[in-house]
Fold each of these.
Amino acid sequence: MNDTDTTDLNGTEQEETPSLEAELARAKSLSVESLADAIESIGFECTRCGACCTAHHEGDDEQKSEYNDEPDSVNAAGSDTSRDDNLKTDNSVSTVDSGHVDHSSQIADQTQTVDNEGQKEHHDMTTQSASTEPHTATVFPDEIRELQTATDDIGDDPVATGDGDGQASTEWRDVARPMPYGLDDENETGTTFEWALQTNACGDCVFYDETDGIGSCQAHDDRPLICATYPFSVALGGTSQPMGEAVDKAGMVRAHECEGLGRDISREAAEELAATLRTRAIRELNEAISLRDAYEPTGDTDGIVVHDSEGAKRPDGTAIDN
Ligand code: SF4
Ligand code: SF4
């Protein structure tokens, strides 16, 4: 029995969920060199197919079996799933099940007051669906503000709806929307955790642009950490896991659906990606701890309540005072 195991009243051994603090300590101890080794061994080069920035359509999953290995292929989500279709993290707090950000479910457990089954299905980057599901990627409050500022600096502002009154013309809700899990079908009421990148009418990320089948991010330099490190994650509880089960792994690194997997990557690029991946893991765990600690039920509040690391907010990002 290891030190995370415990025994219930029936004498059955059960694994104890590591605390967020324990996982944060593990994240801080991650070696960039080791992560880079893992990324190098898996291999990656982004083909700019756009699959990780756009809505998930019925039939996308079928495309996975039609993998086209041509470098210029735009066959989204076409990574080689045959390598290992059943990889899961060994860590009990990281349930990589159908592609979800899992730290919120742990937060819900730790607040012990949240009955929000939808939080167990926090998807990242894209979601599963029988038809079309909007792109859903976690974005943290600071990242939202950075995207607001960055978007204001773009000459032909792609997303702003503000009135140009001297304040930031890009509003919070131009950039982010409440994470949909825990909301009603119309996304009008409910309690949820964290924010997702805002989507357009097609369900694609508002920052996504495509020309002649080549995708681009209009906020590339300020894109959230989850975007900057896709398709990789680390096998730590409380960190976010992109869509679906991992399709490859090496050491602590997990790789998710992406047609760029398996391609050569330079050592320099692997180290840069590894450093960002480590930063992301630490950031996600710090956010999860702050969210847990800041969580307080808001009582009778009309509409939507979003709990994030700074407290409870309305969909426009303004704070709800208890
Ligand atoms: S990271 Fe992968 S899924 Fe995303 S655009 Fe690049 S190749 Fe496509
Ligand atoms: S912010 Fe950029 S990289 Fe991230 S999902 Fe949107 S378009 Fe893609």
Note: Residues 267-294 form the longest helix (28 residues).
Amino acid sequence: MPKQSFSGLRLEGTLSTDSQEIAYAAADFGGIISRTPLAVARAHSPRDVRSVLRFAAEHGLSVTPRGQGHSSMGQAQAVSGIVLDLSDLNTVHDISSDRVVVDAGTTWAALLAATLQHGLTPRVLTDYLGTSVGGTLSVGGIGGTTHRYGVQTDNVLSLDVVTGDGEFRTCSPTESPDLFNAVLAGFGRCGVIVRATIPLIAAPERVRRIKVYYPTAAELRSQQRKLLRERRFDFLQGQILPSDAGWVHMLDVSAFYTPPAEPDDATLVDDIGYDPARDKIEDLSYWEFATRLDETVTYLETTGEWRAPHPWPNLFLPDRTTDTFVDQIMHGLSHSDLGASGLILTYPVSTDVLTTPLFRVPDAPTIFLVAALRFASSESIAEQMVRSNRRWFDSAVGLGGTSYPVGAIPFTEDDWRNHLGQAHQSFAEAEARYDPSEVLNRRLKLTP
Ligand SMILES: Cc1cc2nc3c(=O)[nH]c(=O)nc-3n(C[C@H](O)[C@H](O)[C@H](O)COP(=O)(O)OP(=O)(O)OC[C@H]3O[C@@H](n4cnc5c(N)ncnc54)[C@H](O)[C@@H]3O)c2cc1C
């Protein structure tokens, strides 16, 4: 096959076939699969995005947008195509009293730092803020305030997109809603998000964070259900963690506040089995709280686990079958099945706050996220974990569950179709309308 020439592609940013850039774009956080692109384009403007998409359409190439590449299994990689890296498209534009206009390549950390200067915050933040705005809006974006506000894709006022046909378009719930609904949580298959307008609320100054430990996962979930119903906390999560004595089950909840108002600790911990000798209450600034994972990242960098393979499966289960599912996966699970710093993240969400059509969750009033943060010490262990993830997925589907496809669960075309369910038809129509030459991530395969 003749070597593809990119000489006709002029960008304000860069286009590179240099081996270092290719290696960068062939890797992701998951470290499980690596697909080699033909070239890496770094967009410095929305015009660059349009030029790349038009060039690709003319030359029969595929384009995969990439934010920060924190996907687990090749979601932002391209085979024999162009990786369109958006990380340099990262200006925070206007911040007004209730919204911000921001470029898609901006990280949530940079966005939050900018909005906090105005005493404002997005309603929903992911646990780790090193992800990009365009990246999480292309998948969903769940966090500890999701039980209140939905996922990040439920909190978008409008998007500027370059669609696969190389056209600039603005979309919102009222302007081209078909495109809006096909781009949010659409894994970059219809268009590239270049800019988003995101609603803001007053940021709390401080956070009272409470961790309570329970002997069983069932007890943790029972407390989480109660707190979800009561809406006692602003932030609601939980974890199953390895310990010398087996597994511990930690409720992780927070109340946000701004002095002089202050939450009453006794009221916050009333009737949730809080034991001052065992459990923990801490007081943090909102920024310290939002960036709480930074310390863990530094630790994982020192142990080498930040660069090791991360076969992280993310699943949603209906409340009614979550206990059965968690019992199934915990049965015989050893600490080494998660890896040295592994844990299982689990928390409930009421689905009435979820409005994004492509963010597929079980049909139930309450669902639980069950996400395993697995760390593999070798490629063969990563392969075993990925196989086990697939078994977990099959079992979850049998119990009415769905996958959150940012993770490392092998997904075939049929799985995508089943996953999209009733949204499949309108999504396929939007793909045909906005990306007629099939330039973008059209065959997004999650296979090792
Ligand atoms: C440490 C860590 C913690 C995490 N915590 C959370 C969490 O709390 N909640 C949560 O929901 N997720 C979480 N994730 C998962 C994360 O949100 C997703 O992997 C997300 O996609 C990462 O953003 P990114 O910018 O790295 O996207 P990438 O991996 O670069 O891309 C993700 C997908 O979106 C597409 N895409 C990227 N940018 C654009 C764009 N501008 N336009 C169109 N398509 C685009 C890509 O082609 C790809 O399919 C976490 C991941 C890590 C590594």
Note: The two ends are 25 Å apart (CA to CA).
